Amino acid sequence: MKIAIVGCGNMGMAFAKSFLQYDLVKKENLLLIEKSANRAENLRTENTGVVVETISAHVGEYDVVILSVKPQDFGMVQDALREVLQPQQVVLSIMAGIPISTIQETLNHRLVIRAMPNTPAMLGMGITGFSAAKELSFAQLLKVDNLINATGRSVFLEDESMLDAVTALSGSGPAYFYYLVKAMVEAGKQMGFEESMATLLVKQTMLGSFHLINNADKSLDDLIKAVASKGGTTEAALREFEGGGLAQTLQTGILAAERRAKELSKG
């Protein structure tokens, strides 16, 4: 397989490195298109793939073209791409908020997949929701699904509009998690711990709790009850959370993220 990546920021390079790690592409068949001369030079030093600074007819020789530029920068590459894309190429967009139909019309190209990854993809532990134009075959979908799974796990959505919910839940999700971790660390500091010790306690607690969610044959409510003995310390904390409307606030925030994603998708 030959893959071209347009835009080599954190997410673009997360995909590139994952493809190489799992032998899905050879370095000589991985084209990295980066407009920043300094960034391009750094990429050449890293020897991750073939690095160029402009889009040329050469792009038309690749099986999959990944669009990982910022949405506001799409206008800077769309004309050049429209000139070189070939009908059989699959375009995979990880640009937030730009619908498949817009990409199809802008690039005059039918085979478009739209995906929403999250930042843990940089460690190969991401989750990506993706949707596809009806013109793609099952074989083409499977090919892209295999690529995405190199960065973690994937979920295919027949209804593209659900990508707005994916954006709000898992795309933005890491930030919510960090927000909670930060609040817990701050509480630890208020109780007298040095920040490093509070951070260690919280991070390991989060890690262990994640594995319990994954491996224990219990619901989340059961897991909470297993920690919160009646009249104990955990129950005291949970009572404060409920009184302050913490769960409702989190849900309201996530729904606000979804609304904003819908607004961005409509332009």
Question: What can you see in these coordinates?
Answer:
- Its EC number is 1.5.1.2.
- It is a single chain.
- This protein has 267 residues and is α/β, with parallel strands linked by helices.
- The chain has 2 domains: 1-158, NAD(P)-binding Rossmann-like Domain (Rossmann fold, 3-Layer(aba) Sandwich), CATH 3.40.50; 170-263, ProC C-terminal domain-like (ProC C-terminal domain-like fold), CATH 1.10.3730.10.
- Helix content is 53%, strand content 13%.
- The protein contains 11 helices and 8 strands.
- It has helices at residues 10-21, 37-46, 74-84, 100-107, 138-149, 163-171, 173-190, 195-215, 220-227, 233-243, 246-266, and strands at 3-6, 30-33, 50-52, 64-67, 90-93, 112-116, 126-132, 152-156.
- It has an 8-stranded mixed β-sheet with strand order 3-2-1-4-5-6-7-8, sandwiched between helices.
- α6 (163-171) crosses α11.
- The mean pLDDT is 95.
**E-strand count:** 8
SSE topology string: EHEHEEHEHEEHEHHHHHH
* Main beta sheet strand tally, sense and closure: 8 strands, mixed
User: Could you please say which CATH topology of the largest domain applies here?
Assistant: Rossmann fold
Using only CA atoms, what is the Rg? 22 Å
Range of strand content: 5-15%
Strand order of the largest sheet: 3-2-1-4-5-6-7-8
Question: What is the level-2 CATH architecture name of the largest domain?
Answer: 3-Layer(aba) Sandwich
CATH first level of the largest domain: Alpha Beta
Tally of separate domains = 2
- The end-to-end span amounts to 34 Å
Rounded average pLDDT: 95
In brief, what are we looking at here?
Helices cover 53% and strands 13% of the residues. The protein is α/β, with parallel strands linked by helices. It folds into two domains: 1-158, 3-Layer(aba) Sandwich (Rossmann fold), CATH 3.40.50.720; 170-263, ProC C-terminal domain-like (ProC C-terminal domain-like fold, Orthogonal Bundle), CATH 1.10.3730.10.
